[in-house]
């Protein structure tokens, strides 16, 4: 019996060791799977935060561009209003002074469009693009600036 007790004790020790080793391996494997899941979740959170920051930067860029366009348009209208107010402040003068002053803008506009036409006709095909674009921009801007708000004024009732 002693031999049977020793064999039973050895079998119990071996069985307990094997089960302990299996439990330890299973625990390590579970810990490894858990850490991988945590890392994947952390990576997904970082990617989400990165996308969110990109969207916020795009929104800020769009808002900045909108603010810049608004400031540009506002400045243009303020310049036009100041120009009209300055002309109204001149008041009436001699008839020939009023005639010369009244013909200055139309004369300059016609001259600017004639210069634009001459540049277009006189420039070669290679140089035509940018030069004509600049001259056309200047002529159009001058025409609209000088005559853009020249409609009859309504008197308040």
TrEMBL record:
Transmembrane segments: 6-27, 108-125, 131-148
Keywords: Membrane, Transmembrane, Transmembrane helix
Biological source species: Hyphomonas johnsonii MHS-2
Domain of life of the native organism: Bacteria
Protein name: Uncharacterized protein
């Amino acid at each position: 019996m002693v031999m049977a007790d020793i064999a039973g004790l050895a079998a119990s020790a071996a069985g307990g060791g094997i089960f302990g080793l299996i439990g330890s391996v299973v625990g390590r494997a579970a810990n490894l799977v858990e850490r991988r899941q945590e890392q994947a979740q952390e990576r997904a959170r970082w990617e989400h935060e990165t996308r969110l920051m990109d969207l916020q930067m795009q929104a800020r860029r769009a808002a900045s561009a909108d603010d810049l366009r608004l400031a540009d348009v506002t400045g243009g209208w303020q310049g036009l209003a100041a120009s009209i107010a300055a002309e109204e402040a001149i008041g009436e003068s001699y008839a020939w002074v009023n005639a010369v002053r009244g013909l200055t803008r139309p004369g300059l506009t016609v001259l600017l469009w004639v210069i634009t036409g001459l540049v277009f006709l006189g420039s070669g095909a290679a140089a035509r693009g940018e030069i004509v674009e600049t001259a056309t921009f200047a002529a159009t801007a001058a025409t609209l600036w000088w005559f853009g708000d020249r409609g009859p004024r309504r008197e308040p009732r």
